[in-house]
User: Fold this.
Amino acid sequence: MLATLALGIPLDASGAAWAQPFVSAATWTALLAVATLVDAAERRALAACVVLATLGELFLKDVWGLYEYRLGNLPLFIPAGHALVYAAASRFSRVAPPWLPRAVVVAFAAIVGYGAWQGYDTFGLVWFAAFVGYVGLSANPRLCATLFLFAFAIEAYGTSLGGWRYYTVEPWFGLTTTNPPVWIGAIYCTLETLVRVAAGPAPRAFRLAAHRLAALL
Assistant:
C-alpha cells in the first residue's frame, strides 16, 4: 500500500504519457491484492470506500470546485488510492498511542486557529470543527487522528509534486485556505464515517427489511 502511494504519485506527476494509465493499473492491482487478504467485512468497507470516494471526488472537484488534478480529469487511480489510504490508516491506528487523538486536536487547533486569525485559512474553522466532532463521537478516535495525519501527508506530497492543487479561495462562500489545506484530513474522516455507515449493520438491516416488505407485496 505504501509503495503504491509513494511511487505512484510522483510517477503520475511526471507528466509522461504512459504514467497515469500505469499508475491506475498498479493502484487497482494493489487494492485487489489487499482485498484478497482481508475478511469479508473489510472487503465491504473497501468497496464502499471506492464508491463513496468517487462520488465525493466528483462533488468536491466538479461541483464545489475546491481543487483540480494536473490534467483536469479524475484520474482512475484516485478512488482506489483513497481505499488504500483508508486501509493503511486503519492498520497504523492499531498501533497508535491512546494520546494521539488529543495531541492532534491540540496541535492542529493552534495551526488552524492561527490561519483563521491571519485570514489565510478561514475555511479551516469549519472543517476542523467537524474533525473535533469525529474524534469526540467516534468509537475509534485513534483511527480518526491517524487518518487525519496520514491524509495530510499524502496531500502535501501530491501537491508539492504538482499532481493536483487546491484553490486558495473556496468558490461558494469566498473562504480562504492553503494548498493543501492543513485540515484536509477532516474530509477523509468524513469518508471514513460514511464508509462505516454504508458497510455497517444498519444498511444491511434496511435492505433486509426492504426485501421482506417486497416479498409481502
Notes: The chain has a mean pLDDT of 92. The radius of gyration is 18 Å.
